[in-house]
Amino acid sequence: MTAAVSGTKELYDVTLIGAGPVGLFGVFYAGMRGMKTKVIEALPEVGGQLTALYPEKDIFDVAGFPRIQAKRLIEQCKEQADMANPNATYVFNQRVDKLNRLEDGTFELITHTGERHYSKAVIITAGIGAFEPNRLPNESARAYEGKGVFYNITNLPQFEGKRVLVIGGGDTAVDYALMLEPIAAEVTLIHRRDGFRAHEESLNRLFASRVHVKVFYELRRVEGDGSWVKKAVIFDNRTGEETTLDVDYVIIGTGFKASLGSMLEWGLEIENKRQIVVNSKGETNIPGVYAAGDICWYPGKIRLIATGFGEVATAVNNAKAYIDPSAAAFPGHSSEQRSK
Fold this sequence. Notes:
Layout: E1 2-3, E2 11-17, H1 21-32, E3 37-40, H2 48-52, E4 58-59, E5 68-69, H3 70-84, E6 89-91, E7 96-102, E8 107-111, E9 116-124, E10 130-133, H4 139-143, E11 149-150, E12 163-167, H5 171-180, E13 186-191, H6 200-207, E14 212-215, E15 217-224, E16 229-236, E17 242-246, E18 249-252, E19 256-259, E20 270-271, E21 275-277, E22 289-291, E23 296-297, H7 305-323
Parallel strand pairs: 1-7, 2-3, 2-9, 3-6, 9-22, 11-18, 12-13, 12-18, 13-14, 21-23
Antiparallel strand pairs: 4-5, 7-8, 8-9, 10-19, 15-16, 16-17, 20-21
């Protein structure tokens, strides 16, 4: 979409949409390339999904870190970004609703509050887009949301010595159960079938732990005193037989559903209404707009933080060459650069 020129508005070399780990690594690389950088984040702080949904989760597949807690990884990413790009501008609690290409080739980004931002290039690092939990079709569980029924774990110590029921069979539920097992008094995980979708290593750890795993079980209802959950009634979906558990918490780990929201209206080429199509340079079908991380797609795409780091480095360096044709896309090796 083309609109008026950017005029006297403050213009940035690159604006990243999303401040998760991939976005933060993009800030780092933009600093390495001397690019005036802005970051627009819908949440109130950096970290994206890792901060909002999984801050206590351990991550094992980031190079150089045999094991690192999600919130600690974000701290390290922010420290790295600040080192290379101390003057980057961060805008929080702003969701970009419109992306307009101006007559001079720059971009206008309009947020849901009406604020306008201007940039020579845009890199979309918005993770899975806007997300919300996959809620169970269970009215009693919804009645106790925030009263002992939760969809994520943000404060692990609160579960110390407590009885916890975890629901689900994917990575989210299994990871939650493994996080809780060392500190909770009792952890029960139920799954509606005997096939799990979690990583093999996680399942090996689960079945070797003291977590009570009950397959072919589902939640019938939760019970409480109105202010907090007290019991969970589960049932065997093969026989209908019910079992009542005394619980202090119920964690529904059935994952989250995501939507690209207004990005679907930006004229971008989209794959399955879920991801933005890019080429080997991270370019979208709109010149000057790039995407990296979980939100982008190309043949053979693997959705991992590790691959996102490489994708955003590629996008930033190609964006540098886009806004400054005299600059090479290849940045040189960081080890050859003098420390500041």
